[in-house]
Structures are given as structure tokens and as C-alpha cells.
Predict the structure.
Amino acid sequence: MVNADDTADTHNEELALATSIPHGNGNSGTPVVANISSNGDSKLNQRLYEPRERFIISKNVVVIGLAFMIHFTAFHGTSNLQSSVNADKALGTTTLAVIYGSLILSNIFLPMTVISWFGCRLTMALALFAYMPYIAAQFYPRFETLIPAALMVGFGGGPLWCSKCTYLSTVSEALTQVRGSNSRKDVNTVKFFGLFFIFYQMAQVWGNLISSSVLTLSAAESTSPANESLAVDDLDLEASISRVGELCGARFCPGIGAEVNPNLVPPAPEQIRLLNSIFLTCMAGAVVMMIFGVSSLKRYGVKRGDTGDGISGLKLLTVTINLLRKRRQMLMLPITMFIGLEEAFLAVDFTRSFVACGWGISKIGFAMICFGVANAIAAGIAGALVERIGRVTLAAICAVLNLCLLTYMYSWEAREGDYLSYCAFAAIWGICDGVWLVVVNAFYGILFPNHLIAAYSNFRLWESTGSVIGYVISSQLCTSTKLIILMSVMLVGCVGYGLIEYRVWQKQKNLESMLSD
């Protein structure tokens, strides 16, 4: 028996999909914008806003971006060092795998329930707080301390990212109402996600700047016992330099350690403690900003308990699972998993196989700063580029650039201290990652306008699945094999994404024909 509400939801989503942003030339005519709820009316159509609401909406987006930037300054700065600092018995990579493994469960079961209890704003604040034990556990890094803390991060991550995405999509629709007929929700959504990711990716800059500064500047003041025991004479050092091309880059394999390559000697314990103290303070500041600096979504008609979609948490869980039966969701899975895979490769394999192996652990932060700057710039201009050249064109350019980068990294021979190459790789990677994040995040909101939390829950679910796979294989396969896997998944993902865009284009064309008649 077919439920009438489900049929209505399907019809309304198809209509919303058909009337979404043109994906070709962003200037080709004025689109018809429809955002219809389950009763046939837009959630925000009946609400009137004062002109100053534009400032309030923008302020909220900026504060959320700043809070995430400060928070993930600490998280990224710590995570990027895990595979090198906590390399013993693969503690670092195991911890990261646990984070993203628990994030999979979190994305399935927690977002709708937690958001319905606390609302988007408080959910973000509580989820940010759940990350803090992970930094505290770095003071005493053992399996019994890091694994429980990693579980807290994973269980907090699902509600955090779903509530963030829901908040941005909701205020994008509110801004459309404020600005009137000259504004399109689709463009506003991309722009807000782009603005958010400017702040978010700048966390890579500040986190890695702090970590590299602490590890480099304090190195002269203290000498690690590990450094003393692993010191080598000049002859051995020259021999190790000559072997960088054989051991590092795509040729790196699990098992290569400090006894073979002095670049992989871990930092002194006192340096790590100082770094963790700074990062723990950053996370506490982010929680305070989220609680006192962001407005509740009640002012935009979203009440606590309706999860922003007007349905109960249990029904929304069913919707989240049912989305996997939709063709457009299935076609989005490969590109979504690719985002998780490439992020895991960057955090573990690039930092260890390329930067740490060929340049040194203390230099990881400098290379990742290049990634963060390029990522923020790419995320910032992605919205404007979508409006000017279209979503499909931008995604195609990104795919070609990404494929060229992976191919070159596969054939490149590593050289000792070749910082220009390491920074260039990180910067180009940042451009591709920034574009993928903005385009795919915004596209989920366009494809599933009636089930935003469920859609973003699925996005984080499959992105996390890709990350877990990346972390698991990081300690099992050589880097060259992982690069081939990345290229294969990206190509499959681009095919799926292209098929969905073609379907969107067909529906828009059919709608234009109906209106012209």
C-alpha cells in the first residue's frame, strides 16, 4: 500500500528538482524557483522579514564559520600529525578509523533525534564539545584513552555536520524571501556553503601554522630522547637522503620508520603537550561562540522537535534509509565516497608518504598550510563560478585537474627537502577538495529539498564510509596502489554525477517546454 504523504513528497521533490538552478550557463534566463513542502507550500512563504534580516542571516553564517574554523584548527592540526606522531602499532591511523567508523553509525541514528531534541544551534554547540576529550587524550596517547575519545568525536560528528548543513540551507531560503524575486535559493545555498568553507578550510592554515611553529621553534630548546637514540652520523644521513626517492612518495609502503629514514623521528613529548594545550583552548572558545553568537532557527519558522522537515525523528530515520532507494542518491554515492577517500589519503598518506618522509614531520604543517589557503580560496570562489560558468562546467574542470594531479603524483620521484613540490601538491589538492565540497554539498540540498537532514545525513554517512576505507587500507597497502584506487573511484563518481546532472537538465527542459506552451 502506498502512503499518500510519501507520494506527495516524491512529487514535490521531483518538481523542486525540475525547477532548480540551471546547470549550464548561469546567466541563461530567469529560472522558476519552487521549494514546496509536504502540504504544497514553501516552509517560509508565509513569513515576512525586515530588510535588516539580511545582516542577521549573514552574521549567523559568519559566526558559524568562525566557530568551525577555530574548532577545526585544533582538530585538523592534531589529526594531520596522527599517522606520524602516534605511529607505534598504527595507533594514530586506528584512532582516525574509529572516528569515521563511529561517524557512520552517528549519521544513521543520531542527527534527526539530537536535532529534534536541541535544535540546530544547540546541537552544533554540544557536538563541538564532544570533540574536546580527543584533544585531552593526546596528553596520554594510549589505545585505552584515544579510542573512547575517538568514539565521542564520531558520535558528535553526525549531528554536527547535519545541523550545520540544515541551518545553512534554511537561512538560504530565508534570505531568498528577504531579497525577493531577484534572489534564487539555489545560488544563495551555494554562496553560503562557499562562505562557510572559506572559514572551515582556513582551519587547515591556522592549525598547521600552530603545529609547525610549535614543533619547529621549540625543537631547538629541547631534545627528544627519541632523537638522541635515533641520531645518525653525516655519512648515514647522506645515505638516507639518497634513498628518499626509493622510499617516499608513491613508493612508500607501511613499515618504513625512523630507523630507516631520520625524517620520521617523532617530536619531543613536551612539544606535543604544549600543542595540545593550545588546541584544547581553541575548542573551548568555539563552543562559547556557537552558544552565544548564533541565532536560533525559531525566527525562521523551524521549531525544536520537527527537525526542520516537519516530521518526527523516527520517520526521518526511515526517510534517511529510504533515500538510498532513490536513483539520484545511489548515483551520488561514488563521488561522495571519493571525497571521504581523498580526505583520508591527504590526512594520512600524503602527510606521511610524501611530506614527512621526504621533508620531515615538523614540516607537515607548512605543506598543509598551502592546502588550507588554496582550499579556502577555491571554496570562496566556487559559488561565484557556479553562477557564471555553471555547476557542471566547474565540476568537469575540477575532475580533470584532480585526475592530472593523481596521475603525476603516481609517477613522481620524491626528493629530499623538495618543499616546492610538496606545497604545490597540497595546494592543487586543496583547490580540488574545495570545489568538490561546495558543489556536492550544495547539490544534495538541491536534489532533496524536502528532506534536508536526511540528505545531509546520507552525505556524511557515505563520506565517512570512504574515509574509513581510506584509513583501513593506509596501513595495508603501498601509496601507489592507493593512488590507483583514488583515480578509479573518482572516475566512477564523475560518471554517476554526470548522469544526475543530465537528468536535472532533462527535467528543466521539459518544464520550460510546458511553460512556453
